[in-house]
Amino acid sequence: QLGLDMEELEEIEEDAGLGNGGLGRLAACFLDSMATLGLAAYGYGIRYEYGIFNQKIRDGWQVEEADDWLRHGNPWEKARPEYMLPVHFYGRVEHSASGAKWVDTQVVLALPYDTPVPGYMNNTVNTMRLWSARAPNDFNLRDFNVGDYIQAVLDRNLAENISRVLYPNDNFFEGKELRLKQEYFVVAATLQDIIRRFKASKFGSTDSVRTVFDSFPDQVAIQLNDTHPAMAIPELMRIFVDIEKLPWDKAWDITRRTFAYTNHTVLPEALERWPVDLVEKLLPRHLQIIYEINQRHLDHIAFLFPDDVARLRRMSLIEEGDTKRINMAHLCIVGSHAVNGVAKIHSEIVKTQVFEDFAALEPEKFQNKTNGITPRRWLLLCNPGLAELIAEKIGEDYVRDLSQLTKLHEFVDDDLFIREVAKVKQENKVKFALYLEKEYKVKINPSSMFDVHVKRIHEYKRQLMNCLHIITMYNRIRRDPSKLFVPRTVIIGGKAAPGYHMAKMIIKLINAVAQVVNNDPMVGSKLKVIFLENYRVSLAEKVIPATDLSEQISTAGTEASGTGNMKFMLNGALTIGTMDGANVEMAEEAGEENLFIFGMRVEDVTELDKKGYNAQLYYDRLPELKQAVDQIKSGFFSPKEPNLFNDVVNMLFHHDRFKVFADYEAYVKCQEKVSELYLNSKAWTKMVIRNIAAAGKFSSDRTIKEYARDIWHVEPSDLKIPPPNEPRDAGQDKTPNGTAA
């Protein structure tokens, strides 16, 4: 009626970019699934004023700009000042007969903002509660010194900086004091909130004055999303022992039964190891509690394995060295009743390599929960054409039960369906091509293969290997311009952490190669290279439905799961990938012959490490690799600065932990198979249909059902709550789920 276009309005809205990559996006999918499954679940986090930076590409380099996402307000959130809570920092510990007291602390207030999380068509709305930091009104003014009133008010910013900005590192630990403050801030506010809710419920029965916490783990489950909220373990112990006056052993039993820990990475540089000195300054009581947890833990190990001092050192929560550090993963394992990885292969690595000592001690504690994605956002919302086409064939129920996609196997030889699937893909490609031409002023050939590699820029994800393949294709076209070449548009996108020099060089290299390739008249429309600026969720929703080939090419054993891989599979792209993360299970579901799997397996990588990886050998043996590397080295792609990429080349030869050259040959050969199949549109589309039909396992609904049954001990319900305008039966008032996760 207002003459407004809904799509135009959607374009204006800012992404809430409150996470870095897979881990944050996974949490969002999980919230959608928990609401859709009728679980009484809350997502807790920080309401960052500035989310992940906006990426601009200037002269081929990444430049960061602040993400002022709240500039025009956020209509979905509601501030809840009535639930504001104090969080304490610094101070000291006083011990007395009545127990320990943490005193002389600095107080910061945590103001909650609630965002509704609606389930899919079930009249359930859950809550995401994000905390914002506020200075108390007497901040810096309660000191007896008359002082500078103006300065005191200006200094309120110091307290409120806690929720100012998201640290932009993905898979990398940066041990900064402000980051530790953020981690404790979200934990302290959330635990107070949970305990307040428990005490208000009929379960938090009070004996005279004291709350009885025996039923706490039956009513509350807390899932730690990586080690970032690990301080919740000593914090809950502090509340139980110091404030609620529970005996240690009882408090510890309740704590362990409440927490479960999800590990998201095996990269050593990503594991959180906080300096003891920093924790002692910021959270002195928590350090004491961690020491006590560690002492009891090590006493137990020493009892089981007498005289095994090496084992004690390996399993300690405290790492000795130049600076003593707390190993937060060890704290999470010891303080939780369940530990899980996020794909079968990752959970195996967690059990047999990274935490093998802990798994030997309590094998029943370690589980797998393969990641998933919400089909509401990643099919219905982003690809309505494909969603509608599927619904015509198998009905609409698959949206809540994605395993029903297997019914599509019946139509794999249906010529009409094959044509319709190809048509939807073509329409999505044309639409995205228009977007690219508008944004990047490049002419895109919509019938070319859209070869897409979008994810955070990291050496382990091997965007460099893709780059070497682009250069190889370029050289082949120039060597023999008349030879048949399957046209490609290669799209690479993703953000590099601002302090990650090599990742920023990789972006510059891709843009330098694109500059040469896209302006070579011999190449024409056969090969185009585009670096997609400012990759984010809203852009993923555009590019994924338009993709033909999904690049999932991490070194085997490094990508814990990946979730982009699943989004592409569900949206009718074929995958070229290593046997890593969830790719392994995708190949298991669809049949390995329906993915383009190449390269070393985990065993081969281990073997190569044993004998020593020598990059020079591959360079000497493979002429096309040598040519590509020599071009980068000589300045072919950077004629004004021939030495620009010296660091990249030097890394590839002398300290490439991720063995790009070792998989190059297999990768290029596999890409030739991809091109060959793409020539046969019908055979390609049949493989696409087989992939979509096998994607059902990768719904986050399935993942959450597994967490609910195996870890939280709650039953998902598909009951549709009656809408508010219908009278409820008295019997329907009871929640079928006892536990709040």
TrEMBL record:
Keyword hit for Transcription: no
A single Gene Ontology CC term: cytoplasm
Listed InterPro entries: Glycg_phsphrylas (IPR011833), Glyco_trans_35 (IPR000811), Pyridoxal_P_attach_site (IPR035090)
GO BP terms, alphabetized: glycogen catabolic process
EC number: 2.4.1.1
Signal peptide (UniProt feature, chain positions): none
Gene3D superfamilies reported in the protein's UniProt record: Glycogen Phosphorylase B
GO MF: glycogen phosphorylase activity; pyridoxal phosphate binding
Record region (Disordered): 715-741
Cofactor(s) this protein cannot do without: pyridoxal 5'-phosphate
Keywords from the named record: Allosteric enzyme, Carbohydrate metabolism, Glycogen metabolism, Glycosyltransferase, Phosphoprotein, Pyridoxal phosphate, Transferase
Pfam families, A to Z: Phosphorylase
Function recorded in the entry: Allosteric enzyme that catalyzes the rate-limiting step in glycogen catabolism, the phosphorolytic cleavage of glycogen to produce glucose-1-phosphate, and plays a central role in maintaining cellular and organismal glucose homeostasis.
Family affiliation: Belongs to the glycogen phosphorylase family.
Protein's name according to its UniProt entry: Alpha-1,4 glucan phosphorylase
